[in-house]
Design goal:
Length: 450
């Protein structure tokens, strides 16, 4: 299961925490508000009883018969929030408001506050507890008031939550910007890019990470430089003795007449040719790794391509077909690197072609080098590894396994791409390599339109 980014997790955690704290605060405020509302409403009940009771007693005591029940009529139609009644010590109702039903009051009269299932009642005694006044308020009024108050408190939070989300999102993105930049810089690095990572504007907590990576890359760079220098020096030092040995063997071949020894000398010369080719490839590989390419200018490629192919033909490889556009092709290349690329892919095609078949070399107007030859198709696993160093696909031909690795290194350094296909499209045989160089398409399109 794919893990969520740290930035997203932190955003969710902060927003969840804020929401929970708001809910807890709103709940606590609701409980406190409920208690305060009960105090206020209880105070109203008590004050109502204390104001009405003296008037009610005067009314009752001035009657001819104090036990006569009287219900006060309503002066107008309205919903009574508070009702009251006056009873004597025997529980007889002497006076009550117009909407004070007998079913509301519960059991025995008790001084003070009492809560029933649906009501809150306050009872007050007078004249040696011979008379009582009871004031009642339905609890649903308190509940409605509490809900409305809580909603009024929650309403701003509903609007503040999206604003908090945006504020937290902005803050998290701002704080994580250096982390994201570090992540992008590390992820975009190629395997051979060992330039130290910049530590500017990084938080102090992250500084050990790029510092450790830079230290590791420095050690790798030192090891690669040592390996590159050794390879270049070894290849360079081997060229002279190998060339001398080849010259000596060629002289011996001319002097030796015994067929058996002549055959052995021929085999030895072939082995030396392989060693010379390997030392040349190693030297090219070391140069390709160390080469710092200057690609500021666009260079014409047509004449250079013709010169390289003609050089192969002068060496005895006449079955080379070159196809070039009528107009000049410009690309951002290093001239020496371009020559190495073309020589290696053409040499690879000539070496592994079937039955001495012709090799087609094409330079397109959009700076593609396409080289194809006839051969048995390769498996995909072999194609995937052809640009790896010292890898050779199964074949009867000898080789160093470095030619396409050199091509791949140089092409990537020039900002190009390489694509290998086998069998060739619309065919069941063949091998084709396509090198796309960085080109000035506007210039080439303009030249093509002329």
């Amino acid at each position: 299961m794919k893990s969520l980014p740290l930035q997203t997790k932190l955003l969710f955690y902060i927003l969840g925490l804020i929401t929970c704290l708001w809910c807890i605060g709103l709940t606590l405020a609701g409980y406190h508000l409920k208690a305060e509302l009960n105090k206020v409403f209880d105070s109203v009940l008590q004050e109502t009883a204390e104001r009405i009771f003296p008037l009610a007693l005067v009314e009752i005591l001035n009657r001819d018969d104090v036990k006569v029940f009287q219900q006060l009529p309503a002066l107008s139609e309205y919903e009574e929030r508070v009702v009251y009644r006056v009873v004597n010590s025997m529980g007889e109702v002497l006076l009550k408001s117009h909407n004070a039903g007998d079913h509301l009051w519960g059991g025995k009269v008790i001084e003070g506050f009492k809560t029933t299932e649906n009501s809150r009642i306050y009872s007050l005694a007078a004249i040696q507890k011979r008379y009582f006044i009871q004031v009642l308020e339905p609890l649903n009024y308190r509940q409605v008031a509490l809900k409305e108050a809580v909603m009024l408190m929650a309403l701003p939070l509903i609007f503040l939550l999206p604003l908090s989300f945006l504020a937290v999102l902005w803050l998290v993105r701002k704080l994580f910007k250096p982390v994201k930049q570090l992540s992008i810089e590390v992820s975009n690095r190629s395997a051979r890019d060992l330039v130290p990572i910049s530590i500017d504007q990084l938080p102090q907590e992250l500084l050990p990470i790029p510092a450790a990576i830079n230290q590791l890359m420095k050690q790798v760079q030192v090891a690669l430089d040592a390996e590159r220098h050794f390879t270049a020096n070894a290849a360079h030092e081997l060229r002279t003795p190998l060339a001398t040995m080849k010259a000596q063997i060629q002289r011996l071949e001319k002097r030796v007449t015994d067929p058996e020894y002549k055959g052995k000398l021929s085999q030895l010369r072939i082995s030396l040719d392989h060693l010379i080719n390997l030392s040349d490839k190693l030297l090219q590989l070391a140069k390709a790794d160390a080469l710092s390419l200057k690609l500021a200018d666009y260079h014409p490629l047509t004449e250079l391509m013709i010169f390289i192919i003609e050089d192969f033909r002068r060496s005895g490889f006449e079955k080379l077909t070159l196809k070039i556009p009528e107009h000049e092709v410009f690309a951002a290349v290093d001239i020496d690197a371009f020559a190495i690329i073309v020589k290696n892919i053409v040499d690879n095609a000539l070496k592994y072609r079937s039955n001495n078949e012709p090799v087609l070399v094409e330079l397109t107007y959009d700076a593609k080098i396409v080289v194809s030859n006839d051969c048995e198709p390769l498996k995909q696993e072999n194609i995937d590894n052809l640009c790896n160093r010292f890898y050779r696909a199964p074949s009867q031909q000898t080789g160093s396994g470095l030619g396409l690795a050199i091509v791949s290194t140089l092409v990537k350094k020039m900002g190009g791409s390489i694509y290998i296909e086998s069998p060739i499209r619309q065919s069941h045989r063949g091998f084709q390599i396509v090198v796309q160089l960085k080109t000035d398409r506007e210039m080439n399109n303009a030249l093509q339109g002329q």
